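Dear support,

I submitted the protein below through the web form. The confirmation email said the job was done, but the results page showed an empty box. After a refresh the structure appeared. I'm attaching both so you can tell me whether what I see now is the final result or a partial one.
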Amino acid sequence: MNGVFVSVGSMMPFDRLTRAMDEWAAANPDVAVEIQIGKGAHEPRHARWVRKLPLADYQARVQGCALFVAHCGMGSIISAIEAGKPILMLPRLADQGEHNNDHQLATARNIGVRPGLHVAVDADDLKRRASALLADAGGAPAPISRFADPAFTARIRAFIES
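What the results page shows now:
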């Protein structure tokens, strides 16, 4: 794809993200944009879209894009890190009915300071940052292990067994 892949995740609709990136696609017709919209009501007019992708196709889209845009869900963040792709995130907000609580704001505060993990504060900031990151994506996110540190799991095991 080598353009922008956008994912709202698999749990809840996120029309604010979908709408913002559809508007961005309209303003940037030379960039391929594909949006996974899930159960959302907004069906993009300027970007290709799909409701749901099998896991292998989702992973291929993340691996093949120049920029991954998503909500602040850990699955999206881990997918970006594993693929070595910069991710631009927009946190879901409870007061807009996008989630049950504002835990994604806490995730954004804690994770958005890491290299390669970028957080937008609103839809306009998302569009500005998408353009800037495509012009210069900077470094990839720092890799993480798929497994916990053995010393950490040993401490948990000792606690459980005591």
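Response: this is the final, complete result; the empty box was a page-load delay. The first strand starts at residue 4 and ends at 7.
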